[in-house]
Amino acid sequence: RYIQLQSGSKIQVTRDHEAEPGALTRQVELSGKPEQISKAEQLIKEVLAEADVGSSGVGSGGRKYNATQQGAETFQMKIANNKVGLIIGKGGETIKSMQTNSGARIQVCYLVI
């Protein structure tokens, strides 16, 4: 809830039973205006940094235009599976907060590498 409130972004998380077996990372998708996405990305990185300083919990991401909403973009980044719980938070509170604060939509998906 904190990151949603701070960034104004939208956040959505893929449930464990929808994940690919053996996946080591999940793709996180942030949706909203560019400034909302940037704020949500920053908040996510701060949560990960606070939990594990010096860890490689965040990978690189790329931006692409989302034509479904005027002025909206999407940004994708990879987060290690053992760090995703930090983004979601207990009962989804952290991710809900990120969405509310950023105004962007945040979605966590599993990837098989």
List keywords for this structure.
113 residues, alpha+beta, Alpha-Beta Plaits, 3-stranded mixed sheet, two-stranded antiparallel sheet, 4 helices, globular, KH_dom_type_1, RNA-binding, RNA binding, K Homology domain-containing protein
Gyration radius from CA atoms, angstroms = 13 Å
CATH top level assignment: Alpha Beta
Please tell me what the overall shape is: globular
Euclidean distance between termini CA atoms: 30 Å
Residue fraction in strands: 25-35%
The tally of beta strands, per DSSP, is 5
Largest sheet: 3 strands, mixed
Sequence of secondary-structure elements: HEEHEEHHE
CATH fold field value: Alpha-Beta Plaits
Low-confidence stretches: 54-68
How would the blueprint of this fold be written?
Layout: H1 2-7, E1 9-13, E2 25-32, H2 34-51, E3 58-65, E4 73-80, H3 81-88, H4 93-102, E5 104-111
Parallel strand pairs: 1-5
Antiparallel strand pairs: 2-5, 3-4
GO molecular function, one term: RNA binding
Pfam family, one: KH_1
Biased composition (Polar residues): 1-12
What can you tell me about this protein's structure?
Helix content is 37%, strand content 33%. The protein is an alpha+beta fold. It has a 3-stranded mixed sheet. The protein has a two-stranded antiparallel ribbon with strand order 3-4. Strand 3 (58-65) and strand 4 (73-80) form a beta hairpin. Helix 2 runs antiparallel to helix 4 (93-102). The radius of gyration is 13 Å and the shape is globular.
